[in-house]
Amino acid sequence: ELKVEQNPLFLSMQEGKNYTIYCNYSTTSDRLYWYRQDPGKSLESLFVLLSNGAVKQEGRLMASLDTKARLSTLHITAAVHDLSATYFCAFGSGGSYIPTFGRGTSLIVHP
Amino acid sequence: DTGVSQDPRHKITKRGQNVTFRCDPISEHNRLYWYRQTLGQGPEFLTYFQNEAQLEKSRLLSDRFSAERPKGSFSTLEIQRTEQGDSAMYLCASRRPWGTQYFGPGTRLTVL
């Protein structure tokens, strides 16, 4: 069975702090996705990681991939309120790399 | 580039009725996906098209669900004999080969 486990599922943090969201997946995959979803809205693609050791950064978010450990991380640096959202990781499987999603991490950043 | 659009945005129906949703992908995107999302969960894959060909379909997908993409452009998802458990947000996404996946705003289905 294909599984994705994210932790934590809920994260409340203060502005200015750093934190990491972890994503473990159950099968070999060379494609890992991170998405953001605001309440009541659809998903926005943040990163696509294509190989072991891949690292991508956009603003205060940095994503990395370790395919040997089947682990991806999303690191938040100096959080701001605008980052409050739910963050999903998904790994791509099969020839079509169809994403299998985790349950998401609900992030709230307090002033 | 007008983005992925879905219609309707909301649908309320009675149990046992049939419903059909439409997705218009970004025009040059040949890959199209349907997902279902319930509260507190990540999107669950339903089916995938490359051009007009339906290449993958979730094993979890009931026979009551069918999807088409007749000319490789827009797609429809039909649910027959709806059940209360079908209540969810139905999301469509599209992308180019090797491109970023773009999601539509979703259709929220409520089955009474």
What does this structure look like?
The complex is a heterodimer of chains A (111) and B (112). Chain A is mainly beta and 111 residues long. Chain A contains no helices and 11 strands. Helices cover 0% and strands 58% of the residues of chain A. In chain A, strands 2, 4, 5, 9, 10 and 11 form a 6-stranded mixed beta sheet that branches. In chain A, strands 1-3-8-7-6 form a 5-stranded antiparallel beta sheet, with no helix packed on it. By secondary structure, chain B is mostly beta strands. In chain B, the strands form 2 sheets. In chain B, strands 2, 4, 5, 6, 9, 10 and 11 form a 7-stranded mixed beta sheet that branches. A 4-stranded antiparallel beta sheet of chain B has the order 1-3-8-7, with no helix packed on it. In chain B, a hairpin with a 6-residue loop joins strand 4 (31-37) and strand 5. At the A-B interface, strand 5 and strand 10 of A face strand 5 and strand 10 of B.
Features:
heterodimer; A: 111 residues; mainly beta; six-stranded mixed sheet; 0% helix; B: 112 residues; seven-stranded mixed sheet; globular
Secondary structure elements and their pairing?
The complex is a heterodimer of chains A (111) and B (112).
Chain A: E1 4-7, E2 10-14, E3 19-25, E4 32-37, E5 43-49, E6 55-58, E7 61-66, E8 71-76, E9 85-93, E10 98-101, E11 105-110
Parallel strand pairs in A: 2-11
Antiparallel strand pairs in A: 1-3, 3-8, 4-5, 4-9, 6-7, 7-8, 9-10, 9-11
Chain B: E1 5-7, E2 10-13, E3 19-24, E4 31-37, E5 44-50, E6 53-57, E7 65-68, E8 75-79, E9 88-95, E10 102-103, E11 107-111
Parallel strand pairs in B: 2-11
Antiparallel strand pairs in B: 1-3, 3-8, 4-5, 4-9, 5-6, 7-8, 9-10, 9-11
